[in-house]
């Protein structure tokens, strides 16, 4: 019976005897000291060749080749670093470095190099004459060290791959050419950079000549690819055509996202003269270069969308405040949220719906359709097809702006939603030539809120930050998000940032001017005064004067004259007039053309008011 000894895994190299046909017999574990002695004895019988691994010749050759290769690469890397140091290349990307400063640094470093050269040469000659094998050994040792460093650097670089290098803040012309070529605009050798790449504020800019036959418009369509090639966000890059050369573009690339940062003040705030919505463009914000963005309003319609808090109300204020400052524009705002966002406009609005009241909106839209029909009748009578500023003056037609905030409150109504969308479609498609502008905003841009057939005829689209690319496409149009114009990629902290598709065929990344609550209050007050002066204030209950006159009529009841004290007693129960006294009443009524007079009632003469005066004042309003 033969006894086999095998090394049993997990037993720490303990010999386990087994007999054929029998289960392995585990020996009683030896005390630790005895076992370690046995292990040492076993190991001592292994030949030295197996303990100290001597590599076969082929492996030795490979190792030598590897070390030599990496050694040479390491020396090349060090040479490159040295060359960059001597040429002061790090200063080239520093916007504050002047050419003089760069030249000085280069000179100093060249002198240092010249001083080191004889010292190194003398050391090498001395080493060679003293003991050349030692020098060779030192060189080989140095090479092995460089090889080890090079391999470590490469391992580190490969482990955390930083991706392609971005162009930086002041790229060389060649890097710009490469980016343009990488964006699919031609071969590197065919792209030229005209003049130097220069710093422009917090950005760099370069004039690029595209390969022969490639038009600038192609580069403008490939802005997303250019941004990707430059390693920046789309919002950081602007491509402009160069006047006089259809094959040249100006590339402008910002260091940081220009849509972030401080709010931008609207030019409307400092403006005193009235606005002319027929002839002037509506100022709505700035592009990424800080250049003003505006659009013409006549014959247009607008759709604004974005997630809650993206800045839709502020965006809408840019439109509404501008047209409010034109005393001849008729304002019809509707607030589907039922909040206070549009309340400031109420006193100057001809029609106003401040609640998500579908029936009221249906009635308003029906009235607007009648108004549209009336306008077309007037136009037909003078043989015109559409209203212009001049024809509007001639026919007494005023630009009319219908703005619906939170469209979804109406278009998604189960009972009337479809009818409402159809009416809106009619007003957008036919209303534009008759001076009717439709604007809608929604925080839920989706096909059920803005059906595609309605979206497609709204000519201006303004996408603020959206939650999904689909929502962004609902506003900007199908496929825009995949082409890079995706409002879902905007930073949520960049309030007011968005894409505006208004003039031109491409959406423009931009940021809306900030018009907050206080600004809107100030501007609508100015608009009120402008309208008052122009005699275009609507006779709406929202106007304090109209409200007072109506309240007085209620107080008069059937009486045609009343003493002031009695009138005030009747007025007091109505909201807002509880603490009024005779002097306050006369001060408020005087601008409306109503003055108190001595009135004899039942034989007693006292100060009072006549109902007829109040009625006439109301008619004037
Ligand atoms: N253009 C802007 N510049 C700077 N800040 C802005 C801008 N637009 C909006 N904001 C900031 O974002 C806040 C929310 O804006 P806004 O009320 O317009 O959002 P919204 O999209 O209308 O929200 P909701 O859908 O809830 O009504 C504002 O109070 C303001 O602080």
Automatic annotation (TrEMBL):
Pfam families: FtsK_SpoIIIE
Source superkingdom: Bacteria
Residues that hold ATP according to the record: 306-313
Keyword annotations from UniProtKB, A to Z: ATP-binding, Membrane, Nucleotide-binding, Transmembrane, Transmembrane helix
Record domain FtsK: where: 290-473
InterPro entries: FtsK/SpoIIIE/SftA, FtsK_dom, P-loop_NTPase
TM region positions: 114-144
Database matches in PANTHER family: DNA TRANSLOCASE FTSK, SPORULATION PROTEIN RELATED
Protein known as: FtsK/SpoIIIE domain-containing protein
Organism name: Nonomuraea typhae
């Amino acid at each position: 019976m033969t006894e086999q000894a095998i090394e049993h895994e997990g037993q720490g190299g303990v010999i386990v005897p087994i007999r054929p046909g029998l289960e392995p017999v585990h020996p009683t574990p030896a005390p630790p000291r005895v076992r370690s002695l046995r292990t040492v004895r076993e190991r001592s019988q292994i030949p030295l060749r197996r303990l100290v691994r001597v590599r076969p010749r082929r492996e030795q050759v490979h190792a030598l080749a590897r070390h030599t290769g990496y050694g040479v690469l390491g020396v090349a890397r060090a040479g490159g670093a040295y060359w960059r140091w001597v040429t002061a290349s790090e200063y080239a990307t520093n916007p504050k470095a002047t050419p003089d400063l760069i030249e000085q640094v280069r000179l100093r470093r060249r002198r240092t190099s010249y001083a080191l050269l004889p010292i190194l040469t003398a050391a090498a000659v001395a080493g060679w004459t003293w003991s050349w094998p030692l020098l060779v050994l030192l060189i080989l040792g140095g090479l092995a060290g460089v090889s080890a460093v090079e391999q470590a650097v490469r391992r580190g670089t490969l482990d955390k791959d930083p991706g392609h290098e971005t162009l930086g803040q002041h790229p060389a012309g060649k890097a710009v050419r490469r980016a343009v070529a990488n964006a699919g605009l031609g071969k590197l050798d065919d792209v030229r950079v005209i003049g130097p790449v220069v710093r422009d504020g917090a950005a760099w800019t370069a004039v690029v000549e595209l390969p022969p036959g490639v038009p600038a418009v192609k580069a403008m369509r490939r802005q997303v690819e250019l941004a990707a090639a430059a390693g920046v966000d789309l919002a950081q890059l602007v491509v402009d055509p160069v006047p006089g050369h259809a094959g040249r573009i100006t590339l402008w690339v910002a260091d940081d996202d220009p849509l972030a940062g401080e709010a931008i003040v609207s030019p409307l705030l400092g403006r005193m003269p009235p606005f002319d919505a027929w002839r002037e463009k509506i100022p709505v914000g700035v592009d990424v270069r800080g250049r003003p963005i505006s659009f013409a309003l006549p014959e247009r319609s607008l759709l604004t969308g974005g997630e809650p808090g993206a800045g839709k109300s502020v965006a809408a204020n840019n439109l509404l405040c501008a047209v409010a400052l034109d005393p001849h524009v008729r304002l019809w705002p509707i607030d589907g949220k039922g909040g206070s966002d549009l309340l400031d406009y109420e006193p100057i609005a001809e029609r106003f719906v401040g609640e998500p009241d579908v029936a009221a909106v249906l009635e308003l839209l029906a009235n607007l359709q009648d108004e549209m029909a009336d306008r077309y009748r007037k136009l037909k009578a003078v043989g015109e097809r559409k209203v212009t500023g001049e024809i509007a003056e001639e026919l007494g037609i005023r630009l009319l702006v219908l703005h619906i905030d939170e469209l979804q409150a109406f278009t998604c109504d189960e009972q009337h939603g479809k009818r409402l969308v159809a009416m809106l479609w009619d007003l957008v498609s036919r209303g534009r030539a008759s001076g009717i502008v439709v604007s809608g905003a929604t925080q839920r841009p989706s096909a059920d809120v803005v059906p595609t057939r309605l979206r497609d005829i709204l000519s201006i689209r303004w996408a603020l930050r959206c939650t999904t690319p689909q929502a962004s496409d609902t506003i900007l149009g199908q496929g825009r998000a995949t082409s890079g114009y995706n409002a879902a990629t905007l930073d949520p902290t960049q309030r007011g940032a968005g894409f505006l598709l208004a003039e031109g065929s491409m959406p423009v990344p931009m940021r809306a001017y900030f018009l907050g609550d206080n600004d809107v209050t100030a501007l609508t007050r100015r608009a009120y005064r402008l309208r008052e002066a122009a005699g275009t204030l609507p006779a709406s209950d929202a106007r304090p004067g109209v409200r007072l006159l109506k309240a007085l009529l209620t107080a008069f009841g059937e009486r045609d004259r009343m003493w002031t004290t009695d009138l005030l007693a009747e007025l007091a129960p109505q909201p807002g007039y509880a603490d009024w006294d005779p002097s306050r009443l006369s001060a408020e009524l005087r601008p409306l053309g109503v003055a108190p007079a001595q009135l004899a009632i039942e034989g007693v003469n006292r100060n009072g008011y006549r109902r007829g005066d109040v009625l006439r004042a109301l008619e004037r309003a």
